[in-house]
Amino acid sequence: MNTNDQSDGGTDTPTDDREGSDDEPTDAVSHEEAEELIQEIERRRSLQGGAAVAVAAIGILFSVFQLFLAARSFSFTIWLPIVDNWQVSLQLLQANAIHVSFALVLTFLLFPASMGDGIVARNLGRIVPTASSNLGDRNPLTRLLESARAASRWAFLDPDRERVTPFDLLCIGASILSAGYFLTEFSEIQNMRVFGLQSGRPITEVYAFLQPLLGGVPFVSEYSYAMILGVVGVLLVLEATRRTLGLPLMIIVATFIVYARWGYLISSGTPFIGLLAIPELTWPDIVQNLWYNTENGVFGIPVTVSVSFIYIFILFGSFLEMSGAGQWFIDLAYAVTGNRKGGPAKASILASGFMGTISGSSIANTVTTGAFTIPLMKRSGYSPEFSGAVESSASSGGQILPPVMGAAAFLMVQYTATPFADIIIVATIPAIVFFFGVWVMVHLKAVEQGIGGVEDADTVPIGAHLKRGWFYLVPIGLLLYYLIIERLSVSRSAWFTLVALVGLIALVSAYSEETRGRLLGVFAAIVGVELASYAVGGVPVTGLVTGASSAGLPVGEALDRVVSRIEWYAMLAGALTLLSRPNLDAPLLDLNPAVGETADSIGDRTGRDLGDNQPFRLGTFVVKSMDEGARTAVPVVIAVAAAGIIPGVISVSGLGPNLTSLLLTLSGGSLVIMLLVTAVASIILGMGMPTTVTYIILISMLATPLVEFGLPLLAAHLYILYFGVIADITPPVAVAAYAASGVAKSNPFETGVKAFSLSLNKAIVPFAFVFVPGIILLREKENAAELPIREQYRVVGVSDLMELSYSIPEILIPVAGVFLGVIALGATVIGTLYTSANRLERSGFALSSLLLMAPGMLSTSVFDLLGVVGVTASVDALALDLTLRGIGLVLFVVLAAKNRQQATNPGEVNQPTVS
Question: E strands of 164-224, at which residues?
Fold first, then answer.
């Protein structure tokens, strides 16, 4: 592809002379290759046959269960043909247990216990060769060891990620057994909350046939069946954590459990460490709090949030992705920015931001978006490492980008007792700053290397593109409407938006030039019949058919009822129209390729041509979306279940206040030290772990100390979230960057380093809003001194913005400073503004960036150092903040003017300028 590259002399620069030249393989990664890459990174199985059908069936059932919860809460009716309807009423603990059990079953099906490449497997594999060399092949011991190796490999190993092992089946059975106990013996669980775990029945009483076998075993008679199930359940969660999230997290969680049991051995008289001493706890106490509790432990607040919020949003993202919205957003990004300087990289940023509204997964965003954007970036002239860095850096921002954000945002709702609408408001400006910062850096890199846009053949006119797929924007607009305008709960907003999305896709799939009249007529007939039914019988048509009619409703009220169910009528109208024209070609709808592949696969198995049957494709779209939603949710559910053990231990052991005291003592009363410790801990802990896990662990340990320093509660939580996200692109374990390197065929470590440098503003912005909460639109309440420390701040309103004496110095100027500081930071990292900058100028840009973005960090550090030597100073904090920002602005303007002059007069610098 030719790019609009020119040197300073105006001569075309051949792309063959740069990295990413035409002699490199630049074809876009196919959908199948992207899926294989994700499976390889996440170490998922690629199952076939009956196992694949079982996974799909369980995943769909999982999604159906969550849809019932979203629509009807914990009490709902399941319609059973012939048999009477099944009334279901669940307690929170039961719903949480079923939720986790579904995830456990899918984990043991999708993730192998071992592929034979781990430390333990490799060391065990050396036993037989060693015995053979020392004892001989025919030695009985050697043969016994060979038989044991063969049996263990059959039971545990799955080197090709393609079969379910006996150990997996055993774990699945235990998971189902545990969920069944919560459903059938809940009254016993309630009694044990009062009388203790040991008051439950032993296993020989629950299963009488085991009495002759186990009745005389002391362990069995000593512990209750509930205790045994609790221990097994916690072990299953640890094993699932190891499979999905890696050994380090499993070790961390297990260490907390061991600490809960033996932490009492720590002497309270030991300096510093003595603060970690806890009272002695028995195993029944620990298991009861970790397994049979909705306040803490496995089924605590994180899993409750997953049941109520996280899963339904993951499902919403899955439906949106399967509808074809992902590719449409990528094409939209290229339509907007493709022809600009550095257009492919800018389009990657926009596309990743759009995809962030669909999925909060850094890896999935990186691979699915990068499969298209990274090859185009390489073709335009960016190096493979820089291309992968741009994609992974932007994709990691999906977890901080409203309105959907990642799972951690929903946890923030619960932990801070803040409406999600307020979380959206608070998170918006920092998220925009981050994406703007990456945009600036790729632009400056394009200026440095003379990289232009893509050819017109690779883009579409924005007007035509919007006309073709405008309906993809409707669900996101509806979601914002329900959350911010209607102020509905998160789960209800997601449910209504999801139903509207399916109804919209049904209408669009049935629309064409020849069917639009029929579609409109069917829709109008359905609405008219329903309106008449409400007006005459007070119930929908289904109520009239079943004889449930009553007095009719006034026309206005009947119309309100019909409008509230309009999305269901859209679904029905679309389905009926498609049934009348099953081979219709939907001109406006391009479903995700996975939908067509699934439909074709089912058609091949059944011997029927179903790939072009539109009603079948619509049904496949629905079930495939539910299946993919379940698969996406599995690691998240396991993550929150495992991470919930840590706050559970902190709660049951009474460690919380002592841990806060320890951290405050170690920080020496310095807010800057405390913030740096939190940042480093977030990055280290987050390496290779989901942001959700990092967030749960760190808010359990660090949120309270940060708030004790006077930070607003939301600012403290958002600060921890940001550094947890940064871990995804921080070497040596930069999972998102390594995923991008797989697509870009680049050096993984160098890609991670470049991704971290591109995301530096994501590390500075948290310091900015911690010292100036106005940046995230938080304001101290008038009666803050009379309130608890966690309730002293509120989200600003329109009246606050109109109060210029407040909004200008505490919101407008700091926000403007952050945006200017991001530009200065870009010049520092890339080494170019209008033209290249030398080391001294880059140092000046770095200082101006810090002064513009987070002057409070610098001033507070100075005051802390003065305090160490016994010097105290009292200054007006706001005046000092504005003064430092002013100095930063002057420094930036001077450096920018000098750099522009050098670009205008290229003879004044060593390097020629690039236009």
Answer: none
